[in-house]
UniProtKB/TrEMBL annotation:
<dbReference type="InterPro" id="IPR018163">
    <property type="entry name" value="Thr/Ala-tRNA-synth_IIc_edit"/>
</dbReference>
<dbReference type="GO" id="GO:0004813">
    <property type="term" value="F:alanine-tRNA ligase activity"/>
</dbReference>
<dbReference type="GO" id="GO:0005737">
    <property type="term" value="C:cytoplasm"/>
</dbReference>
<dbReference type="InterPro" id="IPR012947">
    <property type="entry name" value="tRNA_SAD"/>
</dbReference>
<dbReference type="InterPro" id="IPR018165">
    <property type="entry name" value="Ala-tRNA-synth_IIc_core"/>
</dbReference>
<dbReference type="GO" id="GO:0006419">
    <property type="term" value="P:alanyl-tRNA aminoacylation"/>
</dbReference>
<dbReference type="Pfam" id="PF07973">
    <property type="entry name" value="tRNA_SAD"/>
</dbReference>
<dbReference type="GO" id="GO:0005524">
    <property type="term" value="F:ATP binding"/>
</dbReference>
<dbReference type="Pfam" id="PF01411">
    <property type="entry name" value="tRNA-synt_2c"/>
</dbReference>
<protein>
    <recommendedName>
        <fullName>Alanyl-transfer RNA synthetases family profile domain-containing protein</fullName>
    </recommendedName>
</protein>
<dbReference type="InterPro" id="IPR051335">
    <property type="entry name" value="Alanyl-tRNA_Editing_Enzymes"/>
</dbReference>
<dbReference type="InterPro" id="IPR009000">
    <property type="entry name" value="Transl_B-barrel_sf"/>
</dbReference>
<dbReference type="InterPro" id="IPR018164">
    <property type="entry name" value="Ala-tRNA-synth_IIc_N"/>
</dbReference>
<comment type="similarity">
    <text>Belongs to the class-II aminoacyl-tRNA synthetase family. Alax-L subfamily.</text>
</comment>
<dbReference type="GO" id="GO:0003676">
    <property type="term" value="F:nucleic acid binding"/>
</dbReference>
<feature type="domain" description="Alanyl-transfer RNA synthetases family profile">
    <location>
        <begin position="1"/>
        <end position="234"/>
    </location>
</feature>
Length: 256
């Protein structure tokens, strides 16, 4: 039976962690999961396994950001390849993947390693989305954000009302300015529920701020400063049913 103990997500406090020694709580086949948890393993082969550990440095897919991938093992080479991580409503992190050797057992000490290049790329994309959001807030404070997507090749920010390609140069210029300023990405915690994004199972909300200029509930990973994002390209502006989408990318285009 899979544990009901919440996982301690260490990346929320230190996104620079790329390796971690921790303890296995449970390991089982995906087929043995309850239906609501099987549904989290979308596009994962049903014959794969799921591991829950006491702590994790793996980002769980959500908030418009893909999950980390990587490996877990108790020796070299690692024996469990992580293809997807999802978080349950009660705060458990399900690490889906495939064993190359004997499955882990409860209580076993293991070492987590995340794919460094993929984490860096996803963090740059996520921070870039916040930079686009801050540029919009400074240029057009009347525009209400309705959605954010930080997935590779899909990254965009959506707003109520109409924007046009004629708005691109002003947005691009403000985005470039915020990158040049190399502002610090500040992470803090506040008591209480400020929305789904950034909400912790202990009743607090994680806040991401660019140099103290904005205030966004956010559970995602970020680079430490805006200058580390590199160039941000405002690709296009599109409209549908009164909603405008500002699509963006980061350059160089490191594949995740």
């Amino acid at each position: 039976m899979i544990s009901t103990e919440a996982t301690e997500a260490l990346y929320l406090h230190d996104a620079s962690l790329r390796a971690l020694r921790t303890e296995v709580i449970s390991s089982q086949s995906i087929t043995s999961l309850p239906e609501e948890e099987k549904s989290l393993a979308k596009n994962v082969p049903i014959e794969d396994s799921v591991v829950v550990m006491r702590q994790t440095i793996f980002y769980a897919q959500g908030g418009g950001q893909p999950s980390d991938t990587g490996s877990v093992g108790s020796d070299q080479p690692p024996t469990f390849a992580v293809s997807l991580v999802r978080k349950t409503p009660d705060g458990r992190y399900l690490h889906f993947g495939k064993y190359s050797d004997a499955p882990f057992t409860a209580g076993q000490q293991v070492i987590q390693n995340i794919d460094d290049s993929k984490r860096n790329y996803h963090s740059r994309l996520h921070t870039a989305g916040h930079i686009v959001g801050l540029a919009m807030q400074l240029l057009m404070p009347e525009k209400k954000k309705v959605k954010a997507n930080h997935f590779p090749r899909e990254a965009s920010m959506e707003y109520e009302g109409l924007l046009y390609n004629e708005d691109k140069p002003a947005i691009q210029e403000k985005v470039n300015e915020l990158v040049r300023q190399n502002l610090e990405i500040l992470i803090s915690w506040v008591e209480g529920d400020q929305g789904e994004e950034g909400r912790s199972h202990d009743g607090r909300t994680r806040i991401a701020s660019i140099g103290g200029l904005d205030h966004n509930p956010c559970g995602g990973t970020h680079v430490p400063r805006t200058g580390l994002v590199g160039s941000i390209i405002i690709r296009k502006i599109s409209r549908q049913k009164g909603i405008s989408r500002v699509s963006y990318d980061v350059s160089p285009g490191i594949e995740g």
